[in-house]
Write a structure and sequence with these properties.
The complex is a heterodimer. By secondary structure, chain A is an alpha/beta fold. Helices cover 26% and strands 24% of the residues of chain A. The longest helix of chain B is centred in the last third of the chain and has 24 residues. The chains are: A alpha/beta, B alpha/beta.
């Protein structure tokens, strides 16, 4: 049983890992390979700040809320490990700031210690009048993801299908190159990484009128702080540009004046794979005389790290169904 | 009006902050800070500088709360300004955890710190040996950055700094009109105070930049305090121990206790051992004393004995010490009634 996972960002790697962990003991012939043209630190995942935080509004597909929670609980279980820092995992507390009152997010009971900010805390952010949420989440430094059997780069579906029994499509924003998807668009982001070790809290501002990620945010990572606030739908430019740099820098310095002393370490652009819903489903593709099973797992927008493990588990479930249909399972899979 | 010459003995957080306070609030005086040790070699440089106050049995609780609040508010204003990084003051959130439910579930300082609340059951799962906890946001004020910043401010307002070991407060007479005694443990000798004694604290300053929260066991013996450029792991409370050399066995033991609370600390690197002697006393000594020897008079304001709460209380007590200095200045400036012979 040859499984080819295309894509080596957080979605591809975690899905590959999940399938491997779930089925290797029940399927002797299981062989999972990850094909990609880009590996860490060059994937979209590597640009992300990695904070676990879903969008504020409920997803159109309620399963996504469930996958977010599964991911949080999974990461939380890893936090107590001596190896957490090497995995790129750490708890972090901070503030979500709004200009007007908003209802509590649907995930408030998933994170730990969610609460509204007190008046004195709000006084620290004079531009923001209302609310806020402090709660701990996990910044997951994407650069430290464990690569899982990375192999040669590939950019053609055809090459892959000839040797694969099942293809897992985790190609993210570039899924359209393999199969056109008008619902998938790049949500271009640009971020600045700085050295500002005195900042221990994330600060994320929200402007519901402008939309998600278009308002300044400051997210401390394991080694550096990520500054951002750019979201441009349909923009495929992978180069950093100066107006965006200025937007980020001015917005974040207004939010946190001590940033003026921060040393800039680097600047990156990436494309959030934006889609109205995550595409997580099976498809049978016909190539010549044979059918190849494909499981799509792409379109995670700006919440890939937030949702990745729940999706990986769901793909593993779908994979299990494929095995059942082909009478390949001798015993039930180890854990799902 | 003659300039009143004030000597501040001690250049830890008490000496420097009192000197700065006096320079701002007492007109017409000159200030000289005199000490044998300056940053980074003072006790204040070893302290983590967390604003979590201890309790002083001999000081009224209202006073403790006032001083802590004044210190917190003062540093909070700094942390919200562009000076935060220069002053070495940061905001940090975290937990104080208890192995058994405390009799006082809400401490007196709960409304001084930010966002104080009890930990949720889910949060406590991270600490299986503990059954209760506080979650809050407080400030950390780091000696090695804060003291030089205070020194700079002092010099900027005309204050002087002198490196000299004082063996007897009378050495300062008649060059100075008022002495402010911020000599910490040195007061055992300088003030003949047998109530002050060291409580030895050993700590490890390590690299673990992924640790963003403080964790403190309510006993005060085990704590993890993330700072700007390192994490302080502690500690010990060894009463009457004057030994300033780090003990390797103790360091291993501290690391082990901290790793039990925060397993990711197994990955900490670049460990440095430090020792400080907390200048401990049943109550903080904040009072005037008029030293007399023959016809010589030397007004002294004592300002020492903060134990483990030096940084947490320093600004509040410095303000009070400054008020006492002001009283001494008023007395000096009041013309003495003609003595009847």
């Amino acid at each position: 049983m040859r499984v080819v996972v295309i894509g080596a960002g957080v979605i591809g790697l975690s899905t590959a890992l999940c399938i491997h962990e779930c089925y290797r003991s029940v399927l002797q012939s299981l062989n999972v390979m990850v094909y990609a043209d880009r590996f860490t630190p060059l994937t979209t995942t590597d640009v992300a700040a990695g904070l676990w935080q879903p969008y504020l509004s409920e997803p159109s597909n309620p399963q996504e809320a469930h996958w977010n929670q599964q991911t949080f609980n999974y990461l939380l279980s890893l936090i107590g490990s001596p190896n957490a820092a090497n995995m790129g995992l750490a708890p972090v507390s901070g503030y979500n700031l709004f200009r007007e009152a908003v209802p509590d997010p649907y995930w408030k009971d998933t994170v730990l210690g969610f609460r509204k900010l007190t008046p004195r805390e709000l006084d620290m952010f004079p531009d923001y009048r209302e609310q806020g949420a402090a709660g701990w989440k996990k910044p997951r430094d994407p650069r430290v993801l464990n690569p899982f059997q990375p192999t040669c780069p590939v950019d053609c579906y055809q090459v892959v299908k000839e040797g694969a029994d099942v293809i897992i499509n985790c190609t993210g924003v570039w899924a359209g190159a393999l199969q056109p998807d008008p619902l998938l668009q790049p949500g271009r982001g640009q971020i600045i990484k700085v050295d500002a070790p005195w900042l221990k809290h994330f600060i994320i501002t929200h402007d519901p009128e402008r939309g998600i990620y278009k308002s300044p945010y400051i997210i401390p990572g394991l080694q550096a702080i990520t500054l951002g606030g750019i979201f441009q739908l349909g923009n495929w430019s992978e180069t950093n540009n100066i107006p965006d740099h200025n937007t980020i820098w001015e917005g974040c310095c207004r939010l946190e004046p001590t940033l003026k002393d921060a040393k800039i370490i680097g600047e990156w652009s990436g494309f959030r794979p934006v889609r109205p819903q995550v595409r997580l489903e099976r498809e049978q593709l016909r190539f010549g005389s044979s059918n190849t099973e494909v499981i799509h797992n792409y379109g995670h927008g700006g919440f890939g790290l937030t949702i990745h493990w729940g999706c990986a588990q769901e793909v593993a479930k779908l994979f299990g169904k494929i095995l059942e249909e082909r009478n390949l399972l001798r015993t039930p899979p180890s854990h799902l | 009006m003659d300039t009143v010459r004030i000597a501040v003995v001690g250049a830890g957080v008490m000496g420097l902050s009192t000197a700065v306070c006096i320079s701002k609030m007492v007109p017409g005086c000159s200030i000289t800070v005199i000490s044998d040790k300056f940053t980074p070699e003072t006790t204040s440089d070893v302290a983590a500088g967390m604003l979590i106050p201890p309790t002083y049995p001999d000081t009224p609780i209202q006073k403790q709360k006032q001083w802590f609040k004044e210190t917190f508010d003062h540093l909070f204003a700094i942390v919200n300004s562009a000076e935060a990084e220069d002053a070495g003051v940061i905001l940090v959130s975290g937990w104080q955890i208890f192995r058994s439910i405390p009799t006082e579930e809400v401490p007196y300082w709960a409304d001084v710190v930010l966002g104080f609340r009890k930990m949720t059951k889910d949060e406590l799962k991270k600490f299986p040996q503990h059954v209760f906890g506080h979650a809050f946001t407080t400030l950390k004020c780091e000696g090695p950055t804060y003291l030089p910043w205070l020194q700079k401010r002092l010099k900027g307002s005309g204050g002087l700094i002198l490196t000299r070991r004082i063996e007897d407060l009378w050495e300062l007479h008649p060059s100075f009109d008022i002495v402010v005694n911020c000599s910490g443990l040195g007061s055992r000798q300088l003030a003949g105070d047998s109530q002050i004694f060291p409580v030895r604290g050993q700590v490890l300053k390590v690299q673990a930049p992924w640790v963003k929260h403080f964790i403190r066991d309510s006993s005060g013996l085990t704590y993890i305090y993330p700072g700007v450029s390192n994490v302080t792991l502690g500690g010990t409370r060894q009463k009457g121990d004057w030994n300033l050399s780090p003990d390797a066995e103790i360091s291993k033991e501290i690391l082990s206790r901290c790793c039990a609370l925060e397993p990711s600390l197994h990955g900490a690197y670049d460990l440095r051992e430090k020792v400080g002697l907390r200048p401990s006393r049943p109550g903080i000594r904040l009072e005037k004393e008029l030293l007399a020897q023959g016809s010589r008079r030397l007004p002294v304001v004592h300002h020492y004995g903060h134990g483990s709460g030096g940084i947490a209380m320093h600004w509040g007590t410095a303000l009070e010490a400054t008020r006492l200095v002001n009283e001494c200045v008023q007395v000096l400036r009041t013309p003495a009634p003609k003595s009847k012979l």
